[in-house]
Amino acid sequence: MTTDTKKTETRTFEADVSRLLHMMVHSVYSDRDVFLRELISNAADACEKLRFESVSRPELLGDDPKPRITIAANPDNKELVVEDNGIGMSRDGMAEALGTIARSGT
Asked: Phi-psi category of 21—alpha, beta or left, where left has phi over 0 and alpha has psi -120 to 50?
């Protein structure tokens, strides 16, 4: 009588991140409406995070306590600018978020 023993092997997931990001941008964000929606969603997340954090730290609100998202068009430069007065991000936070795919901050 023999007993079959199976050995498991753990392998690291590998990906060409720059190629993966290129595919993501050109497939998911190729539709301008989806891309704009993502920018507005990120702005709303920043405003909501500020509201949440300001419950325990009201000084974060400063002189502009009302959440605001502004979308401005500049047809001469073919630009659409999305601005918010949300929580903002530190340099380290930006580095982490810009190198992360498919994770929301809220």
From this structure: alpha
CB 34 within 8 A of CB 26: no
CA 43 from centre of chain? 9
Average pLDDT value for residue range 86-93: 86
Please name the residue that has the structure tokens 């050995």.
Answer: 7
All structural domains of the chain: 17-98 (3.30.565.10)
State the average pLDDT over residues 80-91. 90
* Model confidence pLDDT, tens digit, residues 47-78: 999 999 999 999 998 888 899 999 999 999 99
Q: Which of 39, 35, 69 is nearest to 51 (CA)?
A: 69
Identify residue 36 by its one-letter amino acid code. L
Q: How far apart are CA 29 and CA 7, in angstroms?
A: 42
